[in-house]
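Weekly structure sync, notes
Attendees: PL (lead), two postdocs, one rotation student
Agenda item 3: pending single-chain targets
PL asked that the sequence for the first pending target be pasted directly into the notes so everyone works from the same version. It is reproduced below exactly as submitted, 948 residues in total.
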Amino acid sequence: MRNSPNERTFFWTQANALLRKNLTYQKRNVKTNVRLILFPFVLCLLMLLLQKLIEKQILDKPENKCGCICTKTQGDKCLEKECGIQYSDLSQVGTCPIPHPPEWPPLMQVPVPQYRAVKSIFLPFLDLPDESCRKNGSCPISMFFTGNNMSFGEIMYENMLPSTLTINISDITGSMALNVLGSATKTGYSNFFEPSFFSDLPIYLLQSQCRQNSTFSVSVQLASISMQKEVKCAQVLHLWRNSSWEVNDELYKGYYKSNTGRQINEISAGYDFLNSNGNKFNVSIWYNATYKNSTGSRPIGLARIPRSINMVSNAYIQFLLGPGNEMLFEFVKEMPKLETPNKFDLASLLGPLFFTWVILQLFPVALISLVYEKQQKLRTMMKMHGLGDGPYWLISYGYFLALSVVYMLCFVMFGSVIGLKFFTMNDYTIQLVFYFIYINLQISWAFLLSSIFSNVKTATVTAYIGLFGSGLLAGFLFQIFVQDTSFPRGWIMVMELYPGFALYRGLYEFAQSSFTGDTSGTHGMRWGDLSDSTNGMEEVLIIMFVEWVLALFVAYYIDQLFSSASRKSALFFLKTFQKKPCPSFRKPSIQSQGHKDFVQMEKPDVSQEREKVEQLILEPTVNHAIVCDDLKKVYPGRDGNPEKIAVSGLSLALPQGECVGMLGPNGAGKTSFIHMMIGLTKPTSGTAFVHGLDIRTHMDGIYTSMGVCPQHDLLWETLTGREHLLFYGRLKNLKGSALTQAVEESLRSVNLFHGGVADKQAGKYSGGMKRRLSVAISLIGDPRVVYMDEPSTGLDPASRNLLWNVIKHAKQDRAIILTTHSMEEAEVLCDRLGIFVGGSLQCIGNPNELKARYGGTYVFTMTASLDHEKDVENLVLQLSPNAKKIYHISGTQKFELPKDEVRISNVFQAVNDAKRNFTVSAWGLADTTLEDVFIKVARSAQEFETLS
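Predicted structure, written out during the meeting:
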């Protein structure tokens, strides 16, 4: 068993090898990376150009600056202009200097007539007006009163509203302040203009009782503009409630949404006098805070609550001092302001959508790379050559993270250098934290989704559909929900669980903060702003961080569960806490007892091999590299088909320095056997030991000393042959000059060194060159055990002969298991041969032994005329009475002659004698070939299976 220091050494050795390979791979894709980084640069530059175009063509025009209007023109040319606030255009407030803000009469917020409180199924109170008043717009304005002393409350109400109307024609605006006026319009962003005087809704005069003809028009002079404004009396209905909780209950019962999206059954205000009396004034005020401007940035309390406070304060003063005593509330006005230029930040307007696409560009890069390794089985190939899961995850994750960090830094720097307010207005630390968490979440999702896809094209199409679809759905659907204050926040958080929407929400908050800060001349988002209930950045950061951790955990769990064809238990992680047994030869839990009848029918050589294995299990020795003990693989039946026995009770002992060849027809079980030995599938029963390590429990240790040449070449298309060997050499802990020497020797041995072939990308190799590179990879680093699956497939005779020499040299100090369909290759390379048929080993031995054991005959062939076929048969029977005819067509006959009955000299003499009696066109005598042995063994095994 390896100790901890070695494990740590192997870990960092593997991590270093994979990191170097990834850097080399990245260097090959430098053009793709440049194009990827240029995408945000071009987009930011395009936004800057559009920004400058808008500023030049629209914002910088004189008529759009500070309320300037042209008073004298000549054709299209303006000769004279007048600058200053033009009261017909509210947009000028944002740019003009206002040293003397206008004074506005204080107003109280009241509901519009069609939404004033009436009796309904929700509010069945008898003192509320009937719903019929809404038809002619005559519903009174309701105010709630409560407190400990009802009589005190009645006095206060009577003092709150003036009993007479006071209008001074010479000072309309000033005299309006002496009355209680109300408005149903929404408040503006600022108080430089009172929206009530610029809307179609009337101004309401609040009275206890309206008289006839109580609607009149007044002329209001504002700077240089005179306007007519309708003033309409509105009756105020005072309603006493016994406690504050009754008021609350009634307020919120009436606060619900109609089909039009507005509240109905609204009240104007509520007053709780609590324990107020002649010695104490203590009051709480309810007000409707839903009347905000379109940006939602200023509640009505900042503009129209002061009148409610003034009303109740004057009522208490009159309660104490009598009528005629009051605090005069003359006007409200804003603070003076300087001139500010017209501002329009295009990046803040379009940034959330376009920057979502910019950042999501990284997702297909990671996903496609991971699926490519999965499709090409490169991850499996690296694992079989010793790359552990820990180094793979550390380097792969770190590799994508480093790419993403560089990409995002370029993105932020590009935007900042060219001066986009989206970047420069917001705190950079918030931006970096947001982007860092998101790119980690994106990488985790790429690892998680890579387990779903097995084809690069499918993954690519899906990733880019998700990329553009996420941006469009977020920009044209999700943003509507975010801006709608009535939409439940809980559902917003649920939608933000989708990473694309979470990314968009964060970018949207950055855009809103930069736009507002630029317009108001303040700053963008700061850390303190995250505590604002209207700012969704805090919840987005929390959601993304938690989802990042969960997605990474689930991705790793699924990878461990399904990373190879051998599925682990769903609770495999619990084994970490168990004490690991020391690897050694030990009898597997499933004994070979169930194979007694089968053993009795085995050939002597196979039975002898089984006995040898059982002896090695009891008395292990270091001389044997591979020991397979009763290895069995059964695939379960599907779709009503019976189960398939791929390997049936294989026992095999392979010493160091020996090459064993596996022969057999297609479907015989050779590949299933190899897959079990290299860890792609787990045995159904039995086990195998590789240098004392059990393939069921210690494959990670076996991988460090194993080489594999798979049936199909598993190579990176953009890496050269030299770079492949450098990577796999480093995995085997080769360093420095030893690594360089091993790579050069490997390249020379497979004839890939000269002519610049070693530094040519593997994607440009021919099939034979790829095959030779795969063999070189399997032998790099001197692995102690090597598996080669048809290594010479597709090679020309010269290359095949060269490869045979390499394998013959390599087998001197390592154990090799080789599968092939070439009998010549098997005879040249293999010390022993095993023939597989129907999942079982039919025979095993060196080629000469097999030919002697299963092919102890000569094959005699003679061609004569049809008239003399009988003479040929008589000739053969004279040579060997037990001769067997195996072929006959058009005068050509082929016979098997037992070697113990025939002497070669007698055959030659008999043929010479026959030529005197009839014409012999051709004849031949041949010894049994390995191919004949293979055919004979396979045919007899298949006949036995058919009979059984």
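Discussion points:
- Residues 1-6, 294-301, 579-600 have pLDDT under 50 and may be disordered.
- The first strand starts at residue 69 and ends at 74.
Action: rotation student to compare against the earlier draft before next sync.
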